[in-house]
């Protein structure tokens, strides 16, 4: 991929692309029906996004993901983190 593209994304978002790629790799074989796995992913996404997630919000996200655990992507998690 184009390094300039990554640098532009990093500059605009403040998110390190290596962190995003590492997260994407970890999502490929994750069991989204396992609560502990999903909690770990939610915590990692919140760290990358530099957004604090309350316990209540984390519980709601985990419940939604484990209920529909067949497919999930970073965009879905990010939307959940941004909903207030």
Compile the SSE list and pairings.
Elements: H1 3-13, H2 17-27, H3 35-49, H4 55-67, H5 74-82
Note the gap between the termini: 34 Å
Strand residue content: under 5%
Portion of residues in helices? over 70%
The residue ranges in which pLDDT falls below 50 over 5 or more consecutive positions are: none
Q: Which key phrases capture this entry?
A:
single chain, 84 residues, mainly alpha, 0% strand, SpoVIF
Give a description of the structure.
The chain has five helices and no strands. The chain is an all-alpha fold and 84 residues long. It has one domain (3-82). The longest helix is centred in the middle third of the chain and has 15 residues, at 35-49. The chain is globular, with a radius of gyration of 13 Å.
Give a summary of the structure in a few sentences.
The protein is an all-alpha fold and 84 residues long.
